[in-house]
Amino acid sequence: MARIGFVGLGNMGLPMAQNLIKAGHQVAGLDINAAAVERLKAAGGAAGESAAALASGAEIFITMLPSGKEVREIYLGASGVVENANADALLIDCSTIDVETARAVAAQAEKKGLMMLDAPVSGGVAGAQAATLTFMVGGSTQAFARAEPILKAMGKTVVHAGGSGNGQAAKICNNMILGISMIAVAEAFVLAEKLGLDHQKLFDIASKSSGQCWSLTSYCPVPGPVPTSPANRDYQPGFTAAMMLKDLMLSQNAAQAVGARTELGAAAAAIYSRYVAGGEAGRDFSGIIRFVRG
Ligand code: NAD
């Protein structure tokens, strides 16, 4: 059993923290939303006073925050986690943020002799609730070995992606594939409609042919072929279009920073940006087919 501090008890963080409690850990949490902290307490957790106080009393300190801005605020500065964490604390940021911030914050932690990992996830809210998340982890082998049993209480697959920032790199590369492939599948269904080809027929053929991919066979953007996909419930999320756009922008910013040519990634970011601007931010990202249809 470990003493764990957890900051960011939102859609993902709260069920993750609850799974740590179920696994027998002692969890104290913090969120700017008081109702979220109350829900953690109802599940057997405790309320923390500040991120710095949580980190000074914890063996493991975890964050699940919206973006790099909040991660910098919580970890850096005189009253931040890096300055105040106990010397043996292992810091784990599970938020999806830019690679640069992940590496900068980990470097500050290392300067203070602290271990830090970036460990973003895939699997969504359902995966967070069912403890079936995939963790992509960047940082030292020693820190990874210490974190692995803790992360396994919240997920099914835990992969060490390499040094600091590589977890974030894996996450944005994966989601760039996903954003592009969802648009590709949506365009194929819309073209099929105009050519008089039935949705189910295209699915039956493409799912057994070279067009096969996760966006088609697990998350099909038209209702019918995959009963569990959000298309069957009016594109209720799931994974929102706003989140997809966030990750596509992170991958575009990273591509520009390192001079990688990602033209389809740029096109996908532009398409999702127009979809979100049309008032569909909270819709599942597979709803992009409605935008493609026009
Ligand atoms: P969310 O907005 O539901 O949760 C974020 C929480 O952080 C909120 O409860 C908010 O009040 C809290 N918070 C913000 N600033 C804070 C601060 N300064 N101090 C304390 N608490 C603060 O978001 P989410 O859906 O839980 O996502 C969290 C992270 O996980 C994001 O980086 C997101 O990109 C990533 N992610 C989300 C999903 C998903 O399907 N929702 C999937 C994979 C990854």
Mind explaining what this structure looks like?
The longest helix has 30 residues, at 166-195. The protein is elongated and about 65 Å long. Strands 3-2-1-4-5-6 form a six-stranded parallel sheet, with helices on both faces. The chain is an alpha/beta fold and 294 residues long. It contains 14 helices and nine strands. The protein has two domains: 3-163, NAD(P)-binding Rossmann-like Domain (Rossmann fold); 169-293, Orthogonal Bundle (N-(1-d-carboxylethyl)-l-norvaline Dehydrogenase, domain 2), CATH 1.10.1040.10. Residues 7-13, 30-33, 36, 64-66, 70, 73-74, 95-96, 121-122, 124-125, 239, 243, 246 line the site of nicotinamide-adenine-dinucleotide.
Q: Summary?
A:
With 294 residues, this protein is an alpha/beta fold. The protein has 14 helices and nine strands.
Q: Structural class of the helix and strand makeup?
A: alpha/beta
Amino- and carboxy-terminal Cα gap: 54 Å
How many helical stretches? 14
Strand order of the largest sheet: 3-2-1-4-5-6
CATH superfamily of the largest domain: NAD(P)-binding Rossmann-like Domain
Can you tell me the number of structural domains?
2
What is the average of the pLDDT values?
97
Q: What percent of residues are in strands?
A: 5-15%
Reported by name, the CATH topology of the largest domain is Rossmann fold
Bound molecules: nicotinamide-adenine-dinucleotide
CATH class wording of the largest domain: Alpha Beta
Largest sheet features? 6 strands, parallel
Which descriptor suits the 3D outline? Answer: elongated
SSE string, helices as H and strands as E: EHEHEHEHHEHEEHEHEHHHHHH
CATH architecture of the largest domain: 3-Layer(aba) Sandwich
Give unreliable regions as ranges: none
| Total number of beta strands | 9
Estimate the helix proportion, in percent. 40-55%
